[in-house]
Hints:
The protein is mainly alpha-helical. 68% of the residues lie in helices and 8% in strands. The radius of gyration is 19 Å and the shape is globular.
Amino acid sequence: MSCEEMEALRKRLGIKLALLARAWRRAIDCALSDLGLTDATWAPLLHLNEYGEGVTQKELAFRVGIDASTLVRVLDILSERGLIKRTADADDRRARKIYLTTAGRKVLSDLQYARDAVDAKVLADVDDQDILGLVKVFKKIDNRLQEMQRSPRVGET
């Protein structure tokens, strides 16, 4: 590969990654359609399971990567479906903590099964060494993005 081709690839890597992530989410959404879940509703359930229940709405919004006011609407839907419950935070009466219900845990189990099936199909031709390499690269990218979020923008002090 020429230097010019490599430079062009570097310039498009971020958008390629974003488009790939979007396509992967659509595949998961399709697999979860029978559960009546979309990316907006299944992501908070997965994050509650992965990072632990009893997080505040604000913490969950940060982990899911959406605005807190948007998450409130999603949590309303999940609550109406009986998948989560919100309780007042004993330490901060303005905050609400989020917990999975029994029904939420059942849906989460079905969700994980369907997601695992999609992941297995998507990664069928990818060997373990490639996955390890990707994880290593993703970590480097994540570290750089976190560093950029902590640092002032160019021209700012």
